[in-house]
Amino acid sequence: MSRPILLFHRPVRPGRGDRCLVLDLDHNAKRTVALLLRFHTNRRADPFNDPKAGHLVVLLYPHLRVRLSLDLTALEEARAHLPRRTGAGIAVNGGPVVRIADLVSITGLADHPPRGFRLRLRDFRFGEEPEPGAVLSPRRPIVDPLGQLMTRAWPGKAKRIGPMGRAPDPPAAPTIMSRPPRVSPRVRIDRDRGRWWIITPAGDRMFSIGMNCVTTRAGGPVTGMARLHRWLPPRRGPLAVAWSAGRTGGEASFYTANLVRRYGPDWRSRWATLATDRLLGWGFNTIGNWSDPLAFAERRMFYTVNAAWWDEPPGPGVDGLYGGFPDVFSPAFARRCDEAARRGTRPDDPLLLGYFVHNEPRWQRADLHLAELALRSNRAPYTRRFLLGWLRRKYRTASARPTPADLDRMRELLVDRYMETACGALRRHDPNHLLLGLRFYGVPPRFVLGAMRHMDVVTVNTYAPAPDPAIMETLHRTTGKPVMLGEFHMGAVDRGMTSFGLVGVRNQHERGVAYAHYMERAASIPYCVGAHWFQHVDQPVLGRFDGENYNIGFVDVTDRPYRELAAAARAVNPRLGQIHAGLTRPRTRAPRLEPTGLIW
């Protein structure tokens, strides 16, 4: 990886009440740029390479001058995501824990910015209370009435909402590998000649080819940014459905407004039919995580359910031990798991593949010790009592102090209890479907892998040009389970979107190449049972609830498919079962990548 460019390096001395960093800045790039902030506690630290520095990554949108107010308590509390600030993209904390009072300097860097990139820092100061932030300029709109960027033209840019052509016919080759009848009343995992498969209730062998977020909404906040839109959907009448409370107050979905305008009063049913027709025509067989029940109701595709119901509900000053990790030995936790599973399971649905038991749990961080947190606080009294009893039994004294090895073992016991309770509730209320894992982001830490014994599948969200066989092999060998790829995507900035996403490629043609390359490599891994693309529709050009504004859809904001990506899926998806069975080999070249600058 090339060395990032230095934008600024400032010595600092925070005051006693300082909790936030205020930045007034703009830049000249025509695409989203990642500002890499490093928070140093050593005066002699190298600004480029300080392993003890705190890390924040903030995405800066093009065309905007903004005032950011970043909550630095996230550095002390190891919170991964900061609240969204008006006019800026996602802000992520990915570094070690540092104290605000210990800061001696702050560095601003940019990794792989566009050629000729310049950033102007107009204000730099500490504050006591974080503010929402503000867009200082421009005063004119930059988003058109269809939700597209006005400051750029590209081939095929929509001028109006017109009628939509029919979906492609399903490909002739199957995406499910048939086998001799061996009907089971439930979905299973099986291995055939060293290759793992999902076995459907009809007895077919299946490699799950999935699409996440098949939904009618792709909304984002407009508070403080209303003037940047030439038009917003009216809050009364047929287009009022484009508005929702969301996570940040009022959120508008131009995608929803465009569906209403294109398909008329029965837009929901027409969308569901067309979306399902398209997915089948492109060779998909699974509707993935966070999708609209309207798509399930078509009854033509398998689907999955996100069952992340178990963490401690957020409350004032209390969010479990860390990141929602609950008091796993309390009777209340067991009751909550049982009630959530009773309400949320669908034991009799033959099209349900199974449940993802969590999604990218924040408590998977290896540098935050759950057992240590439990012992030194009373946030989880039942868990604390269990750990003290475990120490007494091991050392035959009530005054024993845990060794690092003890803490590691106790953390494993806590995670195992968590999974045993949550998965046990799911199994009681639905013995017919799979438990598909926790959708770990990247490489899961070793302390969670033992608890995967309660799962049928281990799922990881792997954003890369292709899945890493070494990582997959380690997960499979360590857990004895097959592996699923819960999320991946590739984006470009050649058709009106300003941010690649987590993996960038040169153009829309290369997105198609990248999709085929990733899926063929996934299918060639004998113990991989599926891979799911994230997501169905592009994110809003000015960002969703957390600021992500990625070109990651199979369709754009006007519900028109990206032809190159759809054609690539239609060509490769029917071959994936053959590749997974070892009957044919991958043949797609690697894509031409573009660096995104996103360093989490």
Strand order of the largest sheet: 21-20-19-18-14-26-24-23-22
Give the overall shape. globular
First and last CA, distance: 14 Å
Helix content estimate? 10-25%
Number of helical elements: 12
Number of strands: 27
Strand content: 15-25%
Short key terms for the protein model shown above:
single chain; 600 residues; alpha/beta; nine-stranded parallel beta sheet; 12 helices; 27 strands; globular
Give a concise summary.
The protein has 600 residues and is of the alpha/beta class.
What do these coordinates show?
With 600 residues, the protein is an alpha/beta fold. It contains 12 helices and 27 strands. The strands form 6 sheets. The protein has a 9-stranded parallel sheet. A 5-stranded antiparallel sheet has the order 1-7-3-4-6, with no helix packed on it. Strands 8-2-5-9 form a 4-stranded antiparallel sheet. Helix 2 packs across helix 3. The longest helix has 26 residues, at 404-429. The protein is globular, with a radius of gyration of 25 Å. The two termini are 14 Å apart. The model has no long low-confidence stretch (mean pLDDT 93).
SSE layout:
Blueprint: E1 5-11, E2 20-27, E3 33-40, E4 54-60, E5 65-71, H1 73-77, E6 88-93, E7 105-110, E8 119-127, E9 134-137, E10 176-177, E11 188-192, E12 195-199, E13 205-206, E14 208-211, E15 220-221, E16 243-244, E17 251-252, H2 254-263, H3 267-281, E18 286-287, H4 293-296, E19 302-306, H5 331-344, E20 352-356, H6 370-376, H7 381-395, H8 404-429, E21 434-435, E22 440-441, E23 458-461, H9 469-479, E24 483-487, E25 504-505, H10 508-523, E26 528-533, H11 563-572, H12 576-580, E27 593-594
Parallel strand pairs: 14-18, 14-26, 18-19, 19-20, 20-21, 22-23, 23-24, 24-26
Antiparallel strand pairs: 1-7, 2-5, 2-8, 3-4, 3-7, 4-6, 5-9, 10-13, 11-12, 12-13, 15-17, 16-17, 25-27
